[in-house]
Amino acid sequence: MRRTARSALVAAGLVAALAAGPLAAVPAFAASVPPASTAPRASAAEGPDAEALAAALSGLPDHDATAALLRVGGDGTWRGTAGVRDVRTGAPALENARFRAGSVTKVVTASIVLQLAAEGRVDLDGTVQHYLPGLLTGDFAPVTVRQLLNYTSGLRPGASLGDTVEDGYAHRFETLTPREVVAAAVAQGPAYPPGTRQTYGNIHYTVLGMLIEKVTGDSYAHQARVRVFRPLGMRHSSFPAGADPRVHGPHNRGYDWIDGRLVDVTDWNMTDRFAAGDLISTTADLERLLVGVFRGRVVPEPQLREMFTLPDVPGARYGAALERFEVDGKVIWGKTGSRPGYATAIAATSDLSRTLVYSVNSADAKGDGLGVAQRFAFPAFNR
């Protein structure tokens, strides 16, 4: 669909805002602009709500997001692309864009660990102290692999170059290694006895990435490629090479509001995220991951059940990587992820009657995520 004159005006406003430099202020946006392109392909009553999904994309770019890519599948499919690739040029968003998938990476990491368990190379009841001797101090009780997978390890958050996008922006080209991240967590001592509480965080999966490398004698990125990406045909998924801050290949640029100004945050060194949040992918590839995992093509039974089993601790919401949601009475399993400028989600019913993948170039991707989910995820499951 051709961009309308009104959408061109919105993009022009953004271009003007950035013309003086990355921190120029952005004016108010038009309230409603048709999406750059939508391709609904669901007419059956049991299919996704195409009208609600199109409405979610309407008006982009706006104050909250510059672009969005949606893929809904299962009983009926729907595809939508809206917004701009680059606010300076106003070029329409790319449907096949690559993006930072953030914590969706954890699904890949959990899959590798559970494959190793199926092969007898990792015991889920085995301990970090056994697989990575010396990593934890004597202050820590035995921490099992399963407790890392389901976020009940008791490890505190590790080192960071900034707790917010605003804090981290000045350090975006600096390197913080996984070992430095973990060392800072260990130095704080345990937060609670392992297996007694569930606390979501990157630190559990940073340690799992290190465990994968120790057990296999190989890099985490290569193990992901041969065990997950290649078998599922995820040809456009990868991890940055070392400290490379760029997203290679076609991509929509990411932006974030910093001190009241819209800033391009696309280029960012993600070494500290490692196996917890370093993945670059596409919506088509993440749909392959979602369907492949749920159908047992990646992780065999009985290990696959770990992903859909909540630990017996108060308020648990996560199995191995996956989170349990309820939307309009439907039980949904999925994983969200966010990096500066990019908010991502994969989600599905356990029988795959409805699946969702989205990438949103959110201008508050590291916020609470509720606004993005309400706008782009809930409509996929509203009937």
Walk me through the structure:
This protein is of the alpha+beta class and 383 residues long. Helices cover 29% and strands 18% of the residues. α3 (105-118) packs across α8 (203-216), α3 (105-118) packs across α9 and α7 (178-187) crosses α8 (203-216).
Describe the structure in brief:
By secondary structure, the protein is an alpha+beta fold.
Biggest β-sheet strands, sense, barrel: 7 strands, antiparallel
Structural class: alpha+beta
Ends apart, CA distance between termini: 27 Å
Radius of gyration: 21 Å
Low-confidence stretches: 1-44
- State the helix count: 12
Strand content: 15-25%
What's the average pLDDT? 89
What is the general shape? globular
Strand arrangement, major sheet: 1-3-2-11-10-9-8
What order do the helices and strands follow? HEHEEEHHHHHHHEEHEHEEEEH
Helix amount: 25-40%
Number of strands: 11
Determine the oligomeric state from the structure.
Answer: single chain
Topology:
Layout: H1 5-19, E1 37-41, H2 50-57, E2 65-74, E3 77-83, E4 99-102, H3 105-118, H4 128-131, H5 145-149, H6 165-169, H7 178-187, H8 203-216, H9 220-232, E5 255-258, E6 261-264, H10 274-277, E7 279-281, H11 283-294, E8 323-327, E9 330-339, E10 342-348, E11 354-362, H12 370-377
Antiparallel strand pairs: 1-3, 2-3, 2-11, 4-7, 5-6, 8-9, 9-10, 10-11
Helix pairs in contact: 3-8, 3-9, 7-8
